[in-house]
Amino acid sequence: MFTPQGPTLRELAVQALSSTMRGYDLLAPKFDRTPYRTPDRVLDAVEGTVRPLGPFARGLDVCCGTGAGVGVLRRLCGERVTGVDFSAGMLAVAQAGQGPTPVPGDGPAVDYVRADARALPFAPVFDLALSLGAFGHFLPRERPGLFGQVHASLRPGGRFVFPVGAPPAVGSRAYWSLFGFDAAMRLRNALWHPRFVMYYRTFPLPAVVGDLVRTGFEVRLLPMEDLGRRPDGSPRARLVVATRR
């Protein structure tokens, strides 16, 4: 699963026994060499699905990590892009340019802010907010507050977008893999402190859409056609487009 330049088993074990924030601080220098970084084909599919919804001036990458989403926003936004994350280590990698290759030529200004996504320090100035691969770090009871913070950071009519993959078939290898991972994390958090919050099966789309609507968003689901369709014809992934009323 990992390249020779990626984290060792010992490094992953130390990360897994740390808090969520400390774990990502430790993993940050090698994060982009792990499968945890959002794949380029997903980044391209997100960009291609979002672009027709523009134009956009100011973009916000929520839980930006090493900056994969910032790269997408730099190609979509014309004025300024902000990445926000609670991990100083991940932000340091993003700022050092060890994440995605910067867009050639002139582009929007980019800045990074260290903050918890549950307490965003922004006025409602963003046209577009994006988040990639971070929702497993929030418990279901935290979702409404998280969505409320993003809502408050968007101007009226601003959009909050994120991809959601189709759930694996019950009984499939992927199903049992995710089930086993979540079970192991629950056991770890019951027996060991500080907690490392990361779950794959706590973000069901119907509940997520309900929380967004109650927060004050209008929600559309767009198929991400570049990622293909399943044998039954349904898309392998959808883009959630939540618009601030």
TrEMBL record:
The keyword Methyltransferase applies. SUPFAM superfamilies: S-adenosyl-L-methionine-dependent methyltransferases (SSF53335). It comes from the Bacteria. GO terms for molecular function: methyltransferase activity. The keyword S-adenosyl-L-methionine applies. Keywords: Methyltransferase, S-adenosyl-L-methionine, Transferase. This is SAM-dependent methyltransferase. The lineage of its organism: Bacteria, Bacillati, Actinomycetota, Actinomycetes, Kitasatosporales.
